[in-house]
Amino acid sequence: MSTFKSEEIWAQVPGYEGMYEVSSRGQVKGLPRTTFFNGRWGATSAKFPGQIMKLDISTGGYSQIDLSKDGKKKKHLAHRLVLLAFSGPISSQVNHKDGNKLNNCLDNLESCTARENLIHATRVLRKRIGEKNGNSKLTEHQVSAIRQDQRILREIAKDYGVSLQAIHHIRSRKNWAAF
Question: Do 42 and 69 reside in the same domain of the chain?
């Protein structure tokens, strides 16, 4: 049985036109160019050959890459570059339809809200959240009580046996956002 792979198409990276391109399969390449700058002994130039660049893995497990412009480097997530180049502005988040954070093919990506992304993770990918997650130390009832508790974070954390940061993330809805 053979699998059909769509043709790889390249598009300019928005904000880096003439410098970088991204492919519909999630690869990034630097375009051949000559850069002029003031060096130690006066004005000089540097030539950059066009080549496919190596992607790194972020702490969150996503493909990322450093792009340079005007002498400044900035990290970019590959999946956001792909969707931005081929589909335009992104609403909030990018969803990997198959759940694989490293599959940055255009047909595997879609723009979505944080809520839509969470629904996809729980209903389609069957990821467990809240109490159903085996690593959870708190219950939904405890999370609700933590949000209503007016004491300082340190005291709450001590009572529940979790870190100060865990309490802060619960209160700011970075963790347990759906509850």
Answer: yes
